[in-house]
Amino acid sequence: MDFELPESHRILRQTLRDFCEREVRPHARGWDAEERFPLEIVPRLAELGLLGIRIPEAYGGAEMDTLAYAIAVEECARVDGSLALTVASHNGLGTGHILAFGSEAQKQKYLPRAVTGEWLAAWALTEPGSGSDSAGMTTTAVRDGDEWVINGTKMFITQGSVGGFCVVLARTNKDVPASRGISAFIVDRGTPGFSASRKLEKYGCRSSDTVELSLENVRVADEQRLGEVDHAFYDTMQILDTGRISIAAMALGLGRGALAMALTYARDREAFGKPIADFQAIQWKLADAQTGLDAAELLIHRACWLREAGQPYSAEAAMAKLFASEVATRVCNDALQIHGGYGYTREFDVERHLRDAKLCEIGEGTSEVQRMVIAKHLLRR
Ligand SMILES: Cc1cc2nc3c(=O)[nH]c(=O)nc-3n(C[C@H](O)[C@H](O)[C@H](O)COP(=O)(O)OP(=O)(O)OC[C@H]3O[C@@H](n4cnc5c(N)ncnc54)[C@H](O)[C@@H]3O)c2cc1C
Q1: pLDDT tens-digit profile of 151-187?
Q2: Of the residues 201, 212, 364, 368, which is catalytic?
Q3: Is 364 a catalytic residue?
């Protein structure tokens, strides 16, 4: 469906397709089996501009648009959902928050190092007791002179142990409704009291780094505060709007990768004296997959276009994520079915795609939350 893409984006797609086939595919299954974050790939991600896709050239970034960001994530996901999650969260959440709401000094300090991969970015909103209801967080930041003292626990944090810094959301005002009393802080790795307390074993995206973070009397200077005091919840909703486009793109890539595998397998595998691709039951799965994925791609491109045009795109980003993630899970499931018993083994990548795709229905807001966002906009109009 690349007929409408500018040349720069077509080149980006082809470059990343080649890179992922050559340097990621041979390792992705192993990284998943070992549940190991592949630190060795980080310098290559930086060389390709994948760690600063939307960051301005002034800070060393590639300064490309939202569509380029979506294409980059999609291409990574075609081969490895974990790698796509790393690229999506690093760009969209951690560095995205600094890019959107950071002071000039914060941008100068963090963005160039994020672009080179010296510091990967993490972003900590979710807690053990609050996910969908993220304003219900209990982590607190209390002002003490020129510093803030942060206490709490964060859950499911991507790049939580390998990140060079983490944007942490904390309650700073208990006397106002929850959403009006939350602030953001940039906490550097190695800050006393800040640690990855637990690595989480996961169903999918197993070579993405996901941890529980502990913050015990973590002291940060006021210069580390990101954005206005008490305003970060609203900032966070904007960050998630962009992030949702990238999770939709991740789902699309996982689905496209699974469909490619299913097509190859359906042509090669024979039953009852002919390729299984000759059976209508298989053809219908393939046709439904292609149709669903193309529709998802159009929703993603619409959300990207609206964002670049400076128009509201919250509901459209939610629709793209909701649709793309549910389509991807179905496509990956059907692709596994087409592989029969082999699909159920770890000798083929299709089961990894299915496990990775499920995350897209949960991360950065579950499908239920996307439906809430879409309905809210619909009823308000
Ligand atoms: C691999 C992975 C990586 C992640 N990375 C990050 C990260 O980097 N940073 C970060 O901050 N978070 C991260 N998350 C957290 C993720 O965003 C949350 O898991 C997600 O928002 C859901 O929150 P929860 O797990 O607490 O589920 P809950 O909110 O407890 O939801 C449980 C179930 O109840 C449903 N539900 C909840 N409220 C409603 C309602 N009002 N109506 C209908 N249904 C409802 C949900 O849809 C879900 O099905 C990550 C999660 C995973 C799994």
Answers
A1: 999 999 999 999 999 999 999 999 999 999 999 999 9
A2: 364
A3: yes
Q: How far is the CA of 362 from the centre of ligand 1 (A)?
A: 6
Look up tokens 């990207």; give the residue. 304
Indicate which residue's Cα is closest to atom 48 of ligand 1: 366
Residues with CB under 6 A from ligand 1: 89, 123-126, 131-132, 156-158, 202, 205, 210, 359, 362-366, 368-369
pLDDT tens across 238-297, in order? Answer: 999 999 999 999 999 999 999 999 999 999 999 999 999 999 999 999 999 999 999 999
* Residue identifier of the C-alpha nearest atom 12 of ligand 1: 126
Cβ-based neighbours of 215, under 8 Å, separated by 6 or more: 139, 150, 151, 152, 153, 154, 168, 187, 193, 194
The two tokens of residue 148 are 């803030």
Write down all domains in the chain, each with its CATH number in brackets.
2-120 (1.10.540.10), 122-230 (2.40.110.10), 233-380 (1.20.140.10)
Q: Does residue 381 surpass a pLDDT of 80?
A: no
